[in-house]
Amino acid sequence: MDDNTVIIGEIKRLLGDRPHLAYVRSFGCQLNVSDGEKLKGLLKKMGYGFTEDESAADLIILNTCAVRENAEDRVFGIVGSMKKLKELKPSLIIGIAGCMTAQSHVAEKIKKSYPQVDFVLGTSAINGLPRLLLDCLNGARFSADIAEYDDFSAEVEQVRESSFKASVPIMFGCNNFCTYCIVPYVRGRERSRRPEDIISEVEGLVRDGYKEIMLLGQNVNSYGNDLGGEMSFPQLLRRLNAIEGDFWIRFMSSHPKDASTELIDAIFDCEKVAKHLHLPVQSGSDEILRRMNRRYTAEKYLSIVDDIYSRDPDFSLTTDIIVGFPDETNEDFEATLAIMERVRYDNIYSFIYSKRTGTKAAEMPDGISEEEKGQRMRRLLEVQRGISTEHYKRFIGRRMRVLADDVSKKREGYVTGKSSEFIIVEFEGDSSLIGQFVEVEVTEAMNWAVIGRRIQK
Ligand code: SAH
Ligand code: SF4
Ligand code: F3S
After folding, report:
1. Same domain, 185 and 233
2. What is the CA(2)–ligand 2 centre distance, in A?
3. Exposed / middle / buried, residue 10 (Cβ in 10 Å: 0-12, 13-18, 19+)
4. Which of 88, 135, 151, 404 is in Cβ range 3.0-4.6 Å of 140 for a Cys bridge?
């Protein structure tokens, strides 16, 4: 950091008094968005302001995601189109950050085919941004920093996108090597942040009026495995729950193989922990789960679900599902639909399998056509629409506590927010409610949200 202070001073001197604007766009998961907020934190220190308009920017950073091919294609498309911007403004600096940069074939491709890119910054090298920028400002043609300094980039101050919802990474990397997934290759092995750093960050956020704290990790249930028994994830939840203030704690993601009774106890015991669990199932077929290296069976998964429903039959669950894993048979797919019907998720995030170079699944034979995969996806979405419409009816007539998020884009004069159960709730109101907890009585269920009436206190 000391080094950075000197470099940041130098950059400020070079930039001078003229206002400089940065455009930072994040393409990936919440962890990626959180990294983007850190990049902005560093840029702010260097004296940059921010713009949403690429053509007004002096600096563009694309903070990328590698999890599926279409995410990468989008970035390549955008970088391609930026050639023009650079011709119009030769002093423009363009950088690529995020998970794509950690794949050597991608970094090579950027360097070779996209001369408009000035620098490449790896996910563990966020603190290297000032150094790279200084090189660029001093006229370097291309610089890259994908070193693994680690993380404790974690402690970089963020420029947060929201004034009432905050993401707090609690760990980095992943040890699970699900066979389809690139994340362990681009994010490295699991590293837990120090508990006291997390606790003081959350305390600070609560003091600053934040109402929702989202704890982030690829598998939060293995938090602390590298801390020698000092603190587990359920213990961390209890510790954060003890912080005074009116706020919610959310977290994601939970790997089913590590979802313990202690975790479920903590969710039910801690009044600030939201009553919702995102528990990615990926598939309902044991054979596919085995080939995905998920290390649980459908039966084991359902035993967790049953434990939760035995404590609260209305508890809200959401999941991730992959459609069309290599050689997924019709029977495998039917098993996925069956587990959806059995669990009755409030919402699912579903993805058509995307082959990622370097992963084990990329080597597996795949006889299923893209057309068939598309059909399965449409069927899955249809089944889920039916489930949500039915399942959301359980909330009618009930009171929900909602954190108001924004004005509704669908209904004039309405505000939209999320309940503790992570259900979208829309109710009459105006923008003055944004960022506040509101009590709502649910009057109607749709397949994407519930509609309610605000209860005046
Ligand atoms: N660590 C998180 C997931 C991060 S990626 C977890 O395990 O829950 C988010 C989701 O993207 C995954 O749950 C999976 O459903 C999906 N995904 C990951 N790799 C994929 C691939 N190659 N093709 C399609 N979907 C993928
Ligand atoms: Fe990817 Fe599996 Fe790790 Fe999630 S748990 S990031 S799906 S390897
Ligand atoms: Fe997230 Fe995409 Fe990286 S899902 S961890 S930004 S590959």
Report:
1. yes
2. 35
3. middle
4. 135
